């Protein structure tokens, strides 16, 4: 009976030590500097397509339209 209890407590202790070692390993950072972290973050976001250069044409069209209206007004009243 005593040897069974000793084995169970020893197994529990070894399991606890293994869990503690595993938990300590989880706190380590895989990046040594903030530059490495930022570079990895940007690379991942580019892979996801977040930094695509989709140009909106509406601002340019609106600017040209307003410029034509202003030019027409100047020519009309000038």
Low-confidence segments, ≥5 residues, pLDDT <50? Answer: none
Percent helix range: over 70%
Helix tally equals 3
SSE-based structural type: mainly alpha
Largest sheet: none
Number of spatially distinct domains: 1
Structure description:
By secondary structure, the protein is mostly helical. The protein has one domain (2-77). Helices cover 77% and strands 0% of the residues. The chain is built from three helices and no strands. It has helices at 2-26, 34-48, 58-77. The longest helix is centred in the N-terminal third of the chain and has 25 residues, at 2-26. The chain is rod-shaped. It starts with a helix and ends with a helix.
Task: Briefly summarize what is shown.
The chain is mostly helical and 78 residues long. The protein has 3 helices and no strands. It is rod-shaped, with a radius of gyration of 33 Å.
Summary tags:
single chain, about 80 residues, mainly alpha, 3 helices, rod-shaped
List the helices and strands and how they pair.
Blueprint: H1 2-26, H2 34-48, H3 58-77
